[in-house]
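worker-3 :: picked RNA-binding protein
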Amino acid sequence: MQLSFAYQVTKWDPATRTVNPDGSVDWAERPDADGSIEAAYLDAISTFARELGVERLTLRDIELRHDDSDLDPGSVLARLFGPRLEGCYDGATVDVDGARLLVREALRAESFDPPAPEEPTLWCRFEAEGRMFVHTGYDLYLYIGASESCLPAVEAVAASGLFPVLVEQSPYDPTSAGAMGEMADVPPVDEVFWAAVDALVDERGGALLQEHAGWDRWHRVVAGGPRPVFRPRAVVEVWPDVSADVAAVLRGILDEDDDPQRDLVYLTADGAVRSVRIDEDSLPRIERHLAGAVGGFAVPGTVDEALPMLLHRAACADADGVVRVRVDRF
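worker-3 :: tokens ->
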């Protein structure tokens, strides 16, 4: 969503920067012992929203590091979206206070050195259609888009000790090549899609469906079984069914010439579909993930290796039948 004005808001003072011969930039560090810098970032969001008359922001293009387990009820994500993130999907809305909390978590995740312990972390674009956007970036950069110049808000942000700079475009604008790559239209998850899936299941006995919606979930479809229920605006890909020879699947991954970087999907004895990332560090622990597994599938590492049974992705349309999800082209 492009708007007439885009501001880069940072704690970095342009007057103190050093440009190195290789073009990289070093900044004088500004410690935030009392939390005033963090508060200024969050207040910048409220200040622009107030001037633009924005009360709620829509979450778009969600990226979430999460293993699909229940969250700590006291966590920010659980309080806003539920312990299983029932309310976290592309197109969900939060009020300005909720957006502040999510941006705070994103900024804190960027500020840890060494990195923070593994825990659910959300990144998304916040949008108020035609009026405002908020993007968080690397190195504590915040980008705020506005339909108007909002000079009082700019002055207030500068007075808080931050440095708002008018830029041509946020680098995280979904229409820019650097943010999302080439945009692609995708067909809907409709009866045509399900008819194709049913035909494949009848032919092969089963299929795996990978649901992308911030974080991935896997589903197995078998003849006569129920259809999975996807989250709003999910993108769905169809893969071959699991193999009963789990040991052979694992051997195939381990026998690769390069270090394995693959997702292993496995079927538990009770019919649940799980996945685990296989890399050099996780290899010693793989056996415990496969204890009792009755089926397995190694997700191809590249698109060229894929075994497409459907030659396209499909996406869940909104209630009006329009597909509004934004995805990269294969």
